[in-house]
Protein backbone atom coordinates (compact mmCIF):
# COMPACT_ATOMS: atom_id res chain seq x y z
CA UNK A 1 0.00 0.00 0.00
CA UNK A 2 1.46 3.36 -1.04
CA UNK A 3 0.99 6.40 1.18
CA UNK A 4 0.88 9.82 -0.45
CA UNK A 5 2.58 12.56 1.49
CA UNK A 6 0.93 15.97 1.26
CA UNK A 7 2.54 19.30 2.03
CA UNK A 8 0.99 21.72 4.51
CA UNK A 9 0.14 24.04 1.62
CA UNK A 10 -1.86 21.32 -0.13
CA UNK A 11 -3.68 20.45 3.10
CA UNK A 12 -4.51 24.11 3.70
CA UNK A 13 -5.78 24.44 0.12
CA UNK A 14 -8.01 21.39 0.53
CA UNK A 15 -9.47 22.81 3.76
CA UNK A 16 -10.07 26.14 2.07
CA UNK A 17 -11.90 24.50 -0.85
CA UNK A 18 -14.28 22.82 1.61
CA UNK A 19 -15.27 26.19 3.08
CA UNK A 20 -18.24 27.35 1.00
CA UNK A 21 -18.21 30.98 2.16
CA UNK A 22 -14.46 31.22 1.70
CA UNK A 23 -14.64 30.00 -1.91
CA UNK A 24 -17.72 32.14 -2.61
CA UNK A 25 -15.97 35.23 -1.21
CA UNK A 26 -12.89 34.47 -3.29
CA UNK A 27 -14.92 34.52 -6.51
CA UNK A 28 -16.77 37.67 -5.42
CA UNK A 29 -13.41 39.39 -4.94
CA UNK A 30 -12.17 38.09 -8.32
CA UNK A 31 -15.30 39.42 -10.06
CA UNK A 32 -15.01 42.85 -8.40
CA UNK A 33 -11.31 42.89 -9.30
CA UNK A 34 -12.08 42.23 -12.96
CA UNK A 35 -14.77 44.93 -12.90
CA UNK A 36 -12.26 47.37 -11.38
CA UNK A 37 -9.64 46.64 -14.05
CA UNK A 38 -12.01 46.69 -17.03
CA UNK A 39 -14.43 49.30 -15.66
CA UNK A 40 -14.18 51.58 -18.69
CA UNK A 41 -14.78 48.66 -21.06
CA UNK A 42 -18.11 47.68 -19.50
CA UNK A 43 -19.32 51.12 -18.34
CA UNK A 44 -22.09 52.74 -20.41
CA UNK A 45 -20.25 56.05 -19.95
CA UNK A 46 -16.62 55.37 -20.84
CA UNK A 47 -15.47 58.98 -20.54
CA UNK A 48 -12.81 59.81 -17.96
CA UNK A 49 -14.30 59.27 -14.47
CA UNK A 50 -17.74 58.77 -16.11
CA UNK A 51 -18.17 62.50 -15.71
CA UNK A 52 -20.64 63.29 -18.52
CA UNK A 53 -23.08 65.65 -16.79
CA UNK A 54 -26.66 66.26 -17.93
CA UNK A 55 -28.30 68.49 -15.32
CA UNK A 56 -31.69 68.28 -17.02
CA UNK A 57 -31.95 64.57 -16.13
CA UNK A 58 -30.48 64.69 -12.62
CA UNK A 59 -31.63 62.25 -9.91
CA UNK A 60 -33.68 60.08 -12.27
CA UNK A 61 -34.91 56.68 -11.10
CA UNK A 62 -33.29 53.36 -12.16
CA UNK A 63 -34.36 52.32 -15.64
CA UNK A 64 -34.86 55.90 -16.84
CA UNK A 65 -34.68 56.23 -20.64
CA UNK A 66 -34.18 59.33 -22.76
CA UNK A 67 -33.17 60.36 -26.29
CA UNK A 68 -29.54 61.56 -26.35
CA UNK A 69 -28.31 63.87 -29.08
CA UNK A 70 -24.54 63.83 -29.54
CA UNK A 71 -22.98 66.82 -31.27
CA UNK A 72 -19.54 65.73 -32.49
CA UNK A 73 -16.48 67.83 -31.82
CA UNK A 74 -14.19 68.89 -34.64
CA UNK A 75 -11.10 68.33 -32.51
CA UNK A 76 -9.21 65.08 -33.00
CA UNK A 77 -7.96 63.31 -29.88
CA UNK A 78 -5.21 60.76 -30.27
CA UNK A 79 -5.40 58.20 -27.49
CA UNK A 80 -3.93 54.72 -27.35
CA UNK A 81 -5.80 51.63 -26.21
CA UNK A 82 -4.12 51.30 -22.80
CA UNK A 83 -4.84 54.93 -21.95
CA UNK A 84 -8.53 54.54 -22.77
CA UNK A 85 -8.65 51.22 -20.88
CA UNK A 86 -7.23 52.57 -17.62
CA UNK A 87 -8.16 56.26 -17.71
CA UNK A 88 -11.24 56.41 -19.94
CA UNK A 89 -11.76 58.13 -23.26
CA UNK A 90 -11.16 61.84 -23.78
CA UNK A 91 -14.67 62.63 -24.94
CA UNK A 92 -15.00 66.15 -26.33
CA UNK A 93 -18.44 65.57 -27.91
CA UNK A 94 -21.45 67.35 -26.45
CA UNK A 95 -24.35 65.19 -25.26
CA UNK A 96 -27.81 66.76 -24.99
CA UNK A 97 -30.90 64.98 -23.61
CA UNK A 98 -33.87 65.76 -25.87
CA UNK A 99 -37.55 64.88 -25.88
CA UNK A 100 -38.24 65.34 -29.60
CA UNK A 101 -36.58 66.44 -32.85
CA UNK A 102 -37.47 67.32 -36.43
CA UNK A 103 -35.27 67.58 -39.53
CA UNK A 104 -36.14 70.04 -42.31
CA UNK A 105 -34.12 71.94 -44.94
CA UNK A 106 -30.77 70.66 -43.69
CA UNK A 107 -31.56 71.88 -40.22
CA UNK A 108 -32.53 70.02 -37.09
CA UNK A 109 -34.98 71.46 -34.63
CA UNK A 110 -34.89 69.68 -31.27
CA UNK A 111 -36.62 70.11 -27.93
CA UNK A 112 -34.51 69.95 -24.79
CA UNK A 113 -35.63 67.37 -22.25
CA UNK A 114 -37.40 68.77 -19.23
CA UNK A 115 -38.88 66.82 -16.34
CA UNK A 116 -42.18 67.30 -14.50
CA UNK A 117 -44.17 67.67 -17.74
CA UNK A 118 -42.66 71.05 -18.61
CA UNK A 119 -42.07 71.67 -22.33
CA UNK A 120 -38.38 72.14 -22.99
CA UNK A 121 -36.71 74.89 -24.96
CA UNK A 122 -36.53 74.53 -28.75
CA UNK A 123 -33.19 74.89 -30.51
CA UNK A 124 -31.99 74.66 -34.10
CA UNK A 125 -28.66 73.42 -35.45
CA UNK A 126 -27.36 72.85 -38.96
CA UNK A 127 -26.86 69.31 -40.20
CA UNK A 128 -23.39 70.38 -41.32
CA UNK A 129 -22.12 69.74 -37.77
CA UNK A 130 -22.57 66.02 -38.42
CA UNK A 131 -20.13 64.17 -40.72
CA UNK A 132 -21.77 63.82 -44.15
CA UNK A 133 -24.94 65.27 -42.59
CA UNK A 134 -25.64 61.78 -41.20
CA UNK A 135 -27.45 62.70 -37.99
CA UNK A 136 -29.18 59.38 -37.36
CA UNK A 137 -26.29 57.63 -35.66
CA UNK A 138 -25.90 60.63 -33.33
CA UNK A 139 -29.39 60.32 -31.88
CA UNK A 140 -29.85 57.25 -29.70
CA UNK A 141 -32.11 56.15 -26.90
CA UNK A 142 -30.11 55.69 -23.72
CA UNK A 143 -31.23 53.74 -20.67
CA UNK A 144 -29.76 54.48 -17.24
CA UNK A 145 -29.95 51.15 -15.40
CA UNK A 146 -29.14 52.64 -11.97
CA UNK A 147 -30.60 56.03 -12.84
CA UNK A 148 -28.62 59.27 -12.63
CA UNK A 149 -26.95 61.13 -9.76
CA UNK A 150 -27.61 64.72 -8.73
CA UNK A 151 -25.41 65.96 -11.56
CA UNK A 152 -27.14 63.85 -14.20
CA UNK A 153 -24.25 61.37 -14.57
CA UNK A 154 -24.84 57.70 -15.28
CA UNK A 155 -24.92 56.12 -11.81
CA UNK A 156 -24.04 52.60 -12.95
CA UNK A 157 -20.88 53.88 -14.64
CA UNK A 158 -19.90 55.80 -11.51
CA UNK A 159 -20.44 52.69 -9.38
CA UNK A 160 -18.32 50.52 -11.69
CA UNK A 161 -15.46 53.01 -11.90
CA UNK A 162 -15.71 53.76 -8.17
CA UNK A 163 -14.85 50.12 -7.48
CA UNK A 164 -11.28 50.88 -8.56
CA UNK A 165 -10.45 53.05 -5.57
CA UNK A 166 -12.10 50.80 -2.99
CA UNK A 167 -10.50 47.68 -4.48
CA UNK A 168 -6.99 48.87 -5.21
CA UNK A 169 -6.57 50.80 -1.98
CA UNK A 170 -6.64 47.43 -0.23
CA UNK A 171 -3.71 46.16 -2.28
CA UNK A 172 -1.62 49.31 -1.92
CA UNK A 173 -2.33 49.75 1.80
CA UNK A 174 -1.65 46.09 2.61
CA UNK A 175 1.52 46.13 0.49
CA UNK A 176 2.86 49.17 2.37
CA UNK A 177 1.83 47.76 5.76
CA UNK A 178 3.50 44.41 4.99
CA UNK A 179 6.79 46.01 3.97
CA UNK A 180 6.98 48.17 7.11
CA UNK A 181 5.34 45.74 9.53
CA UNK A 182 7.25 42.60 8.52
CA UNK A 183 10.58 44.48 8.46
CA UNK A 184 10.23 46.16 11.86
CA UNK A 185 8.53 43.16 13.48
CA UNK A 186 11.18 40.68 12.36
CA UNK A 187 14.05 42.98 13.42
CA UNK A 188 12.47 43.57 16.84
CA UNK A 189 11.76 39.90 17.46
CA UNK A 190 15.09 38.58 16.16
CA UNK A 191 17.52 40.99 17.82
CA UNK A 192 15.59 41.89 20.98
CA UNK A 193 17.17 44.15 23.60
CA UNK A 194 17.29 47.89 22.98
CA UNK A 195 16.31 47.50 19.32
CA UNK A 196 13.17 45.63 20.37
CA UNK A 197 12.41 48.25 23.04
CA UNK A 198 12.80 51.14 20.56
CA UNK A 199 10.59 49.51 17.92
CA UNK A 200 7.97 48.54 20.51
CA UNK A 201 7.92 52.14 21.76
CA UNK A 202 7.24 53.31 18.20
CA UNK A 203 4.54 50.67 17.78
CA UNK A 204 2.83 51.61 21.05
CA UNK A 205 2.89 55.34 20.24
CA UNK A 206 1.41 54.72 16.79
CA UNK A 207 -1.14 52.29 18.26
CA UNK A 208 -2.31 54.85 20.81
CA UNK A 209 -3.33 57.37 18.11
CA UNK A 210 -6.84 56.81 16.69
CA UNK A 211 -6.50 55.34 13.20
CA UNK A 212 -8.85 57.76 11.46
CA UNK A 213 -7.22 60.75 13.15
CA UNK A 214 -3.76 59.56 12.09
CA UNK A 215 -4.92 58.99 8.51
CA UNK A 216 -6.45 62.48 8.40
CA UNK A 217 -3.20 64.01 9.71
CA UNK A 218 -1.08 62.15 7.13
CA UNK A 219 -3.52 62.99 4.34
CA UNK A 220 -3.43 66.68 5.22
CA UNK A 221 0.38 66.57 5.36
CA UNK A 222 0.71 64.85 1.97
CA UNK A 223 -2.17 66.75 0.39
CA UNK A 224 -5.56 65.68 -0.89
CA UNK A 225 -5.48 63.22 -3.74
CA UNK A 226 -5.67 59.67 -5.03
CA UNK A 227 -2.22 58.32 -4.15
CA UNK A 228 -1.94 60.38 -0.97
CA UNK A 229 -4.90 58.49 0.50
CA UNK A 230 -3.38 55.14 -0.48
CA UNK A 231 -0.09 55.99 1.23
CA UNK A 232 -1.78 57.47 4.30
CA UNK A 233 -3.90 54.36 4.88
CA UNK A 234 -0.90 52.07 4.36
CA UNK A 235 1.22 54.01 6.86
CA UNK A 236 -1.37 53.45 9.60
CA UNK A 237 -1.93 49.70 9.13
CA UNK A 238 1.58 48.34 9.73
CA UNK A 239 1.36 48.31 13.53
CA UNK A 240 -0.73 45.16 13.91
CA UNK A 241 1.41 43.35 11.34
CA UNK A 242 4.59 44.32 13.20
CA UNK A 243 3.24 43.11 16.57
CA UNK A 244 2.18 39.75 15.17
CA UNK A 245 5.44 39.22 13.26
CA UNK A 246 7.48 40.16 16.34
CA UNK A 247 5.61 37.64 18.49
CA UNK A 248 5.97 34.90 15.91
CA UNK A 249 9.70 35.56 15.46
CA UNK A 250 10.22 35.46 19.23
CA UNK A 251 8.56 32.03 19.36
CA UNK A 252 10.56 30.45 16.53
CA UNK A 253 13.99 32.08 16.65
CA UNK A 254 15.21 29.48 19.16
CA UNK A 255 13.93 26.54 17.11
CA UNK A 256 16.43 23.92 16.01
CA UNK A 257 16.39 24.83 12.33
CA UNK A 258 17.26 28.45 13.20
CA UNK A 259 20.06 27.31 15.50
CA UNK A 260 21.36 25.04 12.73
CA UNK A 261 21.33 27.94 10.27
CA UNK A 262 23.39 30.03 12.70
CA UNK A 263 25.84 27.15 13.18
CA UNK A 264 26.30 26.93 9.41
CA UNK A 265 27.33 30.58 9.39
CA UNK A 266 24.33 32.00 7.56
CA UNK A 267 23.88 35.76 7.82
CA UNK A 268 21.01 37.19 9.85
CA UNK A 269 19.21 38.48 6.74
CA UNK A 270 19.25 35.03 5.17
CA UNK A 271 18.05 33.38 8.37
CA UNK A 272 15.17 35.84 8.78
CA UNK A 273 14.08 35.94 5.13
CA UNK A 274 14.78 32.33 4.18
CA UNK A 275 14.04 30.36 7.33
CA UNK A 276 11.93 32.34 9.83
CA UNK A 277 9.50 34.38 7.71
CA UNK A 278 8.29 31.49 5.49
CA UNK A 279 7.27 29.60 8.64
CA UNK A 280 5.32 32.43 10.26
CA UNK A 281 3.37 33.80 7.28
CA UNK A 282 0.08 32.04 8.07
CA UNK A 283 -1.13 34.58 10.69
CA UNK A 284 0.25 37.44 8.58
CA UNK A 285 -1.90 36.31 5.62
CA UNK A 286 -4.98 36.28 7.83
CA UNK A 287 -4.22 39.78 9.15
CA UNK A 288 -3.66 41.02 5.60
CA UNK A 289 -7.15 39.88 4.58
CA UNK A 290 -8.63 41.78 7.54
CA UNK A 291 -6.50 44.82 6.66
CA UNK A 292 -7.98 44.78 3.16
CA UNK A 293 -11.43 45.26 4.65
CA UNK A 294 -10.20 47.90 7.11
CA UNK A 295 -8.49 49.88 4.32
CA UNK A 296 -11.69 49.94 2.27
CA UNK A 297 -13.70 51.25 5.24
CA UNK A 298 -11.08 53.89 6.08
CA UNK A 299 -10.96 55.15 2.50
CA UNK A 300 -14.75 55.29 2.36
CA UNK A 301 -14.77 57.28 5.59
CA UNK A 302 -12.15 59.70 4.27
CA UNK A 303 -14.07 60.20 1.02
CA UNK A 304 -17.25 60.78 3.02
CA UNK A 305 -15.44 63.48 5.01
CA UNK A 306 -14.21 65.05 1.77
CA UNK A 307 -10.47 64.42 2.23
CA UNK A 308 -10.25 61.22 0.21
CA UNK A 309 -10.38 60.93 -3.57
CA UNK A 310 -11.29 64.33 -4.98
CA UNK A 311 -14.01 65.13 -7.55
CA UNK A 312 -14.66 64.30 -10.31
CA UNK A 313 -13.03 60.97 -9.40
CA UNK A 314 -15.63 58.32 -8.59
CA UNK A 315 -15.52 56.88 -5.07
CA UNK A 316 -18.17 54.91 -3.22
CA UNK A 317 -17.62 56.91 -0.02
CA UNK A 318 -17.91 60.22 -1.87
CA UNK A 319 -21.08 58.99 -3.61
CA UNK A 320 -22.66 58.32 -0.21
CA UNK A 321 -21.61 61.79 0.94
CA UNK A 322 -23.16 63.43 -2.13
CA UNK A 323 -26.49 61.64 -1.78
CA UNK A 324 -27.09 60.72 1.88
CA UNK A 325 -29.65 63.54 2.20
CA UNK A 326 -31.65 61.95 -0.64
CA UNK A 327 -32.66 59.21 1.83
CA UNK A 328 -35.34 61.53 3.21
CA UNK A 329 -36.16 62.95 -0.23
CA UNK A 330 -37.63 59.70 -1.55
CA UNK A 331 -34.57 58.50 -3.45
CA UNK A 332 -32.62 56.43 -0.90
CA UNK A 333 -31.09 54.15 -3.56
CA UNK A 334 -28.59 56.91 -4.44
CA UNK A 335 -26.91 56.32 -1.08
CA UNK A 336 -27.88 52.68 -0.54
CA UNK A 337 -26.31 51.32 -3.76
CA UNK A 338 -22.71 52.44 -3.00
CA UNK A 339 -23.25 51.48 0.64
CA UNK A 340 -24.21 47.94 -0.40
CA UNK A 341 -21.15 47.77 -2.67
CA UNK A 342 -18.87 48.67 0.25
CA UNK A 343 -20.63 46.14 2.48
CA UNK A 344 -20.31 43.31 -0.07
CA UNK A 345 -16.61 43.93 -0.70
CA UNK A 346 -15.73 44.29 3.00
CA UNK A 347 -17.74 41.20 3.94
CA UNK A 348 -16.04 39.18 1.19
CA UNK A 349 -12.60 40.03 2.57
CA UNK A 350 -13.69 39.29 6.15
CA UNK A 351 -15.15 35.90 5.16
CA UNK A 352 -12.07 34.95 3.15
CA UNK A 353 -9.96 35.96 6.15
CA UNK A 354 -11.96 33.63 8.40
CA UNK A 355 -11.65 30.83 5.83
CA UNK A 356 -7.87 31.31 5.61
CA UNK A 357 -7.61 31.27 9.42
CA UNK A 358 -9.39 27.91 9.58
CA UNK A 359 -7.42 26.48 6.65
CA UNK A 360 -4.02 27.53 7.99
CA UNK A 361 -4.70 26.43 11.57
CA UNK A 362 -2.29 23.54 12.15
CA UNK A 363 -4.31 22.32 15.14
CA UNK A 364 -7.22 21.25 12.93
Automatic annotation (TrEMBL):
PANTHER family recorded: D,D-DIPEPTIDE TRANSPORT SYSTEM PERMEASE PROTEIN DDPC-RELATED, OLIGOPEPTIDE TRANSPORT SYSTEM PERMEASE PROTEIN APPC
Main location group: membrane
Gene3D superfamilies: MetI-like (1.10.3720.10)
Subcellular location: Cell membrane
Entry membrane topology: Multi-pass membrane protein
Alphabetic keyword roster: Cell membrane, Membrane, Transmembrane, Transmembrane helix, Transport
PROSITE patterns in the record: ABC_TM1
Domain ABC transmembrane type-1: residue ranges: 163-353
Protein name in UniProt: ABC transporter permease
Entries under CDD domains matching the protein: TM_PBP2
Pfam families the record matches: BPD_transp_1 (PF00528), OppC_N (PF12911)
Amino acid sequence: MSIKSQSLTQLALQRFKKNFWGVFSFWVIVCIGLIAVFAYVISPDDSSNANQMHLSIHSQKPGFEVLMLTIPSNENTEQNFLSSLFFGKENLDTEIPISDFEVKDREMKYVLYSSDGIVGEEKIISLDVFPNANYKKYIKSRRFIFGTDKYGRDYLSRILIGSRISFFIGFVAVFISLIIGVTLGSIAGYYGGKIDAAIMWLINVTWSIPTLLLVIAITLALGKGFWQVFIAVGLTMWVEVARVVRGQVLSVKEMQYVTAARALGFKDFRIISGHILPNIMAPVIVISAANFAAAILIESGLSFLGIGAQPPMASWGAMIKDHYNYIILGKPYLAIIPGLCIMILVMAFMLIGNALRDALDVKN
